[in-house]
Amino acid sequence: MEEELIEVISIVQSSENIEKILNYLENRIKTPTKIAKALNLSQANVSRTLKKLMKYGLVEILNPSVKVGRLYTITDLGKKALYYAKK
Q: GO molecular function of the protein, one example (predicted)?
């Protein structure tokens, strides 16, 4: 297994909120506000977590040019990491 994948699997398993957010985004495209409401998490927590997930390439913004209403989705790397984290 490649080193990058091992690192991101570890990141996914390091936090229940990370795993929740990735699970939620697995088949969805959502804003941080929608994610926070659906998962009963604070907006600040979701934003902080999304920023961390972006740093590791697990999620991406589909419309980065906008400030309000940014849409997030899980990346292929995020899907792989989530798959192995669930095993």
A: DNA-binding transcription factor activity
- Per-residue pLDDT of 23-41, as tens digits, reads 999 999 999 999 999 999 9
- pTM of the predicted structure, to 2 decimals: 0.91
Residue with more model confidence, 34 or 87? 34
Structure tokens at 43: 């907006």
* Max CA distance (Å), the chain: 38
Q: How far is CA 46 from its chain centroid? A: 9
Q: Where are the domains of the chain?
A: 3-86
Nearest-angstrom CA–CA distance, 74 and 56: 11
- Residue 15 burial (CB count, 10 A): 12
Q: In whole angstroms, give the CA distance from residue 8 to residue 24.
A: 17
